[in-house]
Amino acid sequence: MRNIKVIALMLSGIFTGTFLHAQETLTLQEAVKYALENKAEAKKSKLDLENSEYKIAEVRAGALPQISGQGSLTYNPLIQKSALDGALMGRPGETIMVAFGQPWQANAVVQVSQQIFNQSLFTGLKAAKSTREFYQINNELTDEQLIEKVANAYYEVYQSEMQLQTIENNLQNTIKTRDVLKGLVDAGLAKKIDLDRVEVAINNLLASKQQVINGADLRENALKFAIGMPITEDIVLPKETFDIKADYLSAEFNLDNRTEIKLLDKQIELLELNKKAMISNYYPNLSFTGNLGYLGFGQKFPIFNSNANFSPYSAIGLNLSIPIFSGGRTKSQINQANVEIRKAQVDKEDAKLGLNLAAENARAQIKNSLITVDNNRRNIELAKNVLSNTQNNYHNGLATLTELLDAENALADAENNLNTSLLNYKVAEIQLIKANGNIKSLINE
After folding, report:
1. How many angstroms separate the CA atoms of 396 and 209, rounded?
2. Please, what is the Cα angle at 15 between 14 and 17, to 5 degrees?
3. Which helix (H) or strand (E) holds 338?
4. Buried b vs exposed e over 194-227: b needs ≥16 C-beta within 10 Å?
5. Helix-strand-coil percent breakdown of the chain, rounded to 5?
6. CB proximity list for 145: less than 8 A, separation 6 or greater
7. What are the structural domains, with CATH classification, of the chain?
8. DSSP label at residue 64
9. Low-confidence residues in the chain, pLDDT < 70
């Protein structure tokens, strides 16, 4: 039987945080934990969660004082002159042109502004907490979807191993038959054509074995990709994985515990806050502003010039903005927000229907799989008995070679059917665990 061993996984664990010794097998729990630390989806989801904190900080920044500094230096080669009535200077009837200003002017000012009442900003601050919770729930959903994907890929690899073992057992039985038949042919007690038929059967089994090996390699690579493991790493699965737990059938479904529903609820909550932000456009805005500056001017470069004139200045004020008429734009925005909320509610109801359908299908699949597994196990015992009796009859000349080969094939088919039914059960079990909102329990089993 083909052995798959963990060789370099320990080195990978040093860099990824998942530490598996070279001689240990890769259990489902280890595979899931490895995926949650290394798979791209899990990493990106955690980065989205980190990025949400920066988005929240950006919103909160709007409620804090905004301070800025500015500076300017201006040179006026030609200063504009203004016309004055000469009578003001004792020269009636004349127009006197006077230049106001200096060729050089420098200005430095610090400005500060603070929102005092801004309903849109306040709504955004309320949405900050919900935004964080939304990304946290989305991260949980990403983890759950990844766990489901890994579990399915894991059991498919295990099924390939079981199929390979079945073919190997069948091959060994056929080789034993070939060896016995060869001795009979050499002794002149059996026909050469019967030996050739057995050789053909062995060659067919070897071809089937190679196909299963190739398929197993592909499934192993798919599992490695699913958990974010380098394809060059080697893995080995434990001997026993397909445990039957019929108690899952008695579990009650609670859709409110499903992460998908929690995420939709949080999305609706954010849409409600978005609607309030639209409504806030009807409210006035009040803010405080202030500045403190320093103005320098003179005939020459005013900086580091003792002959230049300098003058400080400052101003404080309140800015009030009152919306009066926007042409119906705000009302249209509110209506659009209402439509988005209703669409999200429809999505939630549809999601509930889909989750109920998936849960009932999983429960029905488990019931059918339990019956099929039980039937296949009994069928294997019957096939073993038939093969044993046929072998005895063949050795005693009471059965044909065709009957013997058919009995061996029947046992192999029964074992393959059991493997398939066990995989179907495990897939349905994963879906049922997910339906109960306990998919993360696979990490701690």
Report:
1. 31
2. 70
3. helix 329-395
4. bbebbeebbeebeebbeebeeebeebbebbbebb
5. 65, 15, 20
6. 41
7. 9-69+119-283+326-443 (1.20.1600.10)
8. S
9. 1-24, 240-243, 245-252, 444-445
Tell me, what DSSP letter sits at residue 97? E
Q: Are 199 and 178 in contact (CB under 8 A)?
A: yes
Question: Among 293, 303, 312, 294, which Cα is nearest to 104's?
Answer: 303
- Separation CA 394–CA 405 (nearest Å): 10
Q: How far is it, in rounded angstroms, from Cα 67 to Cα 234? A: 59
What whole-number distance in Å separates Cα of residue 120 and Cα of residue 125? 9
Is the Cβ–Cβ distance between 107 and 295 less than 8 Å?
yes
For the chain, the straight-line distance linking the first and the last C-alpha, in angstroms and rounded, comes to 28
375 is written with which tokens? 């039937």
How much is the pLDDT for 94? 81
Contact 399, 393 (CB under 8 A): yes
pLDDT tens per residue, range 366-408? 888 889 989 999 999 999 999 899 888 887 878 888 888 888 8
Tokens 């592909």 belong to residue: 218
Q: pTM, whole model, 2 decimals?
A: 0.75
Residue 78, C-beta contacts closer than 8 angstroms, at least 6 positions apart: none
Q: Cα separations (Å) of 120 from 4, 251, 276?
A: 60, 46, 8
SS3 274: helix
What letter would DSSP give residue 442? G
Q: How far apart are CA 377 and CA 235, in angstroms?
A: 29
Q: What is the pLDDT of residue 6?
A: 33
Structure tokens that stand for 172 in this block: 């060994």
